[in-house]
């Protein structure tokens, strides 16, 4: 008789948990900057910080963090869907299980947007999760080709822009009508209800970014993750990581060369001032950032072959095993740190200060996650998601026997 039970924690792949923890760190380093000052006003806000340290931190974030960790998180989500789908197929679960699982994630994402922070990606992942499940039966080579097509060819931009035009939404209209001072007043002194309404305004203002940039990148990474699982790379990870070393290093050199050229030289050239070329250069930067994220994945997977690096990276697994809880938890911390609910520190920190706060919060999450997992099998939100996905009460405490 087939068992209608979730995958055992013993089946986890340590490298994937460490990568999830690494992705959670990188995402918060970027997100806390937006929590500290909305992206819409960031240029003017950052201009006031002229110290050498702040300038250095901004460059480090541009080179090593911005737009690099969202592709990693998306790839790992696609891998997770692939692993679970292939495993649960043998247990006789129906498609309704995956639909219910993605519906719960979608509702969690919307609760995240309205109650905590507008920069949620979970609702996007829920939509793309259904898309990925519909394609999971394709050959691994077909999945990889589709992933590269989504990543390299921006044919979808016109489609999504047309969708925004069709529903008559100007993403920037509402937020552009507010000054930086008015936004700061709402976030720092407004009631919680006003904060909820503003988070909706902020979400709508980011629709173009979500639809035209983030969603296609996430879809590409989902399909690539599915392709990796179907190809069987996870069953012999050391071999595959070593076998692709040469092309990975060439791609990393090429993408990094372009990123350095983009950040340090291109902006001063006449061709950058031409709008048609600027769009091309920006899109190439998005591709380079995605490849840099994939390079990070390869580096960590390669480092896990060595005892020293494996021990050094080991603590990241605790955050990775509770990735959903820690991702939402970072937004809870941001809510209390920056808004009227707590310390009202919106626009109160410089670039180096936000980086230090992000690192301290992550160390705190490692310690809390390790303590929690010494008593419980799953993180609290992971357990909640599992219970609703399987539509049954599942044990969360570890057996004491």
Write the layout of secondary structure elements.
Blueprint: H1 14-36, H2 42-46, H3 52-64, H4 69-89, H5 95-115, H6 122-135, H7 140-152, H8 156-166, H9 173-176, H10 180-189, H11 192-205, H12 207-231, H13 237-243, H14 245-264, H15 275-303, H16 307-313, H17 316-321, H18 323-338, H19 351-373, H20 380-390
Helix pairs in contact: 1-4, 1-18, 1-19, 4-6, 4-12, 4-15, 5-6, 5-20, 6-12, 7-12, 8-12, 14-15
Radius of gyration: 21 Å
Question: Low-confidence parts, pLDDT < 50 over ≥5 residues?
Answer: 6-11
Shape: globular
Major sheet: none
Which percent range fits the helix content? over 70%
β-sheet strand percentage? under 5%
Give the termini distance in whole angstroms. 26 Å
Give average pLDDT, whole number. 90
Structure in a nutshell:
This protein has 401 residues and is mainly alpha-helical. It has helices at 14-36, 42-46, 52-64, 69-89, 95-115, 122-135, 140-152, 156-166, 173-176, 180-189, 192-205, 207-231, 237-243, 245-264, 275-303, 307-313, 316-321, 323-338, 351-373, 380-390. The protein is built from 20 helices and no strands.
Describe this structure in words.
It is built from 20 helices and no strands. With 401 residues, the chain is mainly α. The chain is globular.
Which properties best describe this structure?
401 residues; 20 helices; 73% helix; 0% strand; globular
